[in-house]
Design a protein that fits this description.
347 residues, alpha/beta, Quinone Oxidoreductase, Chain A, domain 1, 11 helices, 25% strand, globular, ADH-like_C, oxidoreductase, zinc, ADH_Zn_CS, GroES-like_sf
Length: 347
């Protein structure tokens, strides 16, 4: 099968013919329909997470497809079932796995960094619990579920206890993750949603998906948001960027006893002291989401789907997809299509 490989000492992916995996034990072989291109893929290429990457490897952790084959002990799923693949694959027996947080498993693996991922025609998933049936949702439409939608849902779930109908929540970064967060905030809460992004297209898109207000990050966005929230500030801020600037913005916006949830991987830091934030502000990071979260994402999308714009690229153009993402020209989500998709095997 064809796969895009991240080889030692390189920052571009190399197309190669590799053996098609064969499932054993509890494993599930998924024929990939689409694999999303994520900003964390750029961080991997740039060497930011080199201690977490096992080269050579096939990147791509945001995967949807169709079950192609099962190991002899795999059960609970049938060949031919459309599925989305969970981003983190835990051991299944440690404290974090047995309490429903496989994404935090210390010995777990992740497609695209420590195990071969979705920039290939097939991906081998270690257990049937790591694939979630899509029902009537087309796999291509579900490509963003395994990371963008999952992480956004987990972030929204984290801040929901702080929110009431009189509160404001600001979403920093209105790309793929931010758009899902806005959608879920409008679905699951009555809070007023404010979005901030440095791109005009993302600001417009934030309004399209339900934000009450969307502002351009122009250096004075903090005062513009303050004029909307009043002296109480925001009860919650979700930062999908994570730069020095956005973390400082989040700290400025969060009001007394509010919460700041960080998912962005831009490497920024925030000075933390007793008087550096409003009184009793909670700081938290959000690491992907749980398997239960992914099931909830699928249920929500079956009931009230969010149509994220997808820009598709054939597998041979995977490096172009990564370059376009880096250039900021992707409005929704970039998706890599394997060769089988190009031949029209799935939709």
């Amino acid at each position: 099968m064809r796969a895009a490989r991240l080889l030692p000492g390189t920052s571009l992916l190399t197309l190669a013919d590799v053996p098609q995996p064969q499932p054993v034990d509890d494993q599930v072989l998924v024929r990939v329909v689409g694999a999303g291109v994520c900003h964390s893929d750029l961080h991997v290429l740039d060497g930011d997470f080199e201690h977490l990457v096992q080269r050579p490897v096939t990147p791509g952790h945001e995967i949807a497809g169709v079950v192609h084959a099962l190991g002899p002990q795999a059960h609970g799923i049938d060949v031919g079932t459309p599925v989305v693949v969970m981003v983190g694959w835990g051991c299944g027996v440690c404290l974090w796995c047995t309490t429903g947080h496989e994404q935090l498993c210390r010995s777990g693996r992740e497609a695209g960094s420590t195990a071969d991922g979705g920039f290939a025609e097939f991906v081998l998933v270690p257990h049937a619990r790591h694939v979630v049936p899509l029902g009537s949702i087309a796999p291509l439409d579900a490509t963003p579920f395994g990371c963008a939608a999952l992480c956004a849902f987990a972030a929204v779930q984290r801040v929901l206890p702080w929110l009431s109908s009189s509160d404001c929540v600001t979403v920093i970064g209105a790309g793929g993750l931010g758009q899902y967060a806005i959608h879920y905030l409008r679905t699951l809460s009555d809070a007023r949603v404010i979005a901030v992004d440095r791109r005009d297209t993302a600001v417009a898109r934030a309004l399209d998906v339900g934000a009450h207000h969307a502002l351009l990050a122009d250096g004075v966005e903090a005062s513009a948001i303050a004029s909307l929230t009043g002296p109480e500030g925001c009860r919650a801020v979700i930062d999908f960027v994570g730069s020095d600037h956005t973390l400082t913005l989040a700290a400025t916006l969060a009001g007394t006893r509010g919460v700041i949830a960080l998912l962005g991987l831009a490497g920024g830091t925030l000075a933390y002291g007793f008087e550096s934030l409003a009184p009793e502000v909670t700081l938290t990071t959000v690491v992907a989401g749980t398997l239960a979260d992914l099931h909830n994402v699928v249920r929500l999308e079956q009931r009230d789907p969010l149509a994220i714009p997808l820009t598709t690229y054939p597998l041979d153009h995977v490096n172009r997809a990564l370059a376009d993402l880096r250039a900021g020209v992707i409005t929704g989500r970039a998706v890599v299509l394997p060769r089988s998709m190009e031949r029209g095997d799935d939709s």
